Amino acid sequence: MVNHSNFTLEILEYCSKDEIIKREQYFLNKIKPEYNILQKAGSSLGFKHKLETIKKLKEIQLKIPESKEHLENKIKSNPNSKKINLINVETNEVLVLIQWEMQQEN
Predict the structure, then answer these.
(1) Exposure of 28 by Cβ count < 10 A (0-12 exposed, 13-18 middle, 19+ buried)?
(2) Distance of CA 49 to the CA centre of its chain
(3) One domain, residues 58 and 93
(4) Which one of 17, 21, 24, 86 has the fewest beta carbons within 10 angstroms of its own beta carbon?
(5) pTM: predicted TM-score of the whole model, two decimal places
(6) Shared-domain flag, residues 2 and 24
(7) How many distinct structural domains can be found in the chain?
């Protein structure tokens, strides 16, 4: 088990916002930190959430209301999504549901 008290946080260098990613990559290459999962600064490329984590994130996401425009953009950008409109015939209220297909880990 990893104990947080065994870690320290140090500022290695101050730099401008424009240089952050470049300098982070420099230090990742130089120090080669043991506990960094990701090796490329500013990228989550190569990182995979566990299926259990994906389910939890989706549960949290369902509790956060999103604008209609945001939902439309999500649907357009994800080929695995399906938009489902439910209409209350008594009130004509439209409820938009989105079905996301989860990709299984290999």
Answers:
(1) middle
(2) 9
(3) yes
(4) 17
(5) 0.43
(6) yes
(7) 2
pLDDT for 104: 47
Q: Which two tokens stand for residue 47?
A: 């990182």
Q: Is residue 73 part of a domain?
A: yes
Residues 70 and 42 in one domain: no
Please write the tens of the pLDDT for every residue from 50-100: 889 888 888 877 776 667 777 777 777 777 777 777 787 888 887 766 666
Report helix, strand or coil for 102. coil
Residues 28 and 8 in one domain: yes
Can you tell me which residue has the tokens 């989860």? Answer: 102
Report the candidate in 99, 74, 73 with the shortest Cα–Cα distance to residue 85.
Answer: 99
Percent share of the chain, pLDDT over 90: 14
Find the domain containing 5 and state its range. 1-47
> Rounded to whole angstroms, what are the CA distances from 67 to 74, 97, 103?
11, 13, 25
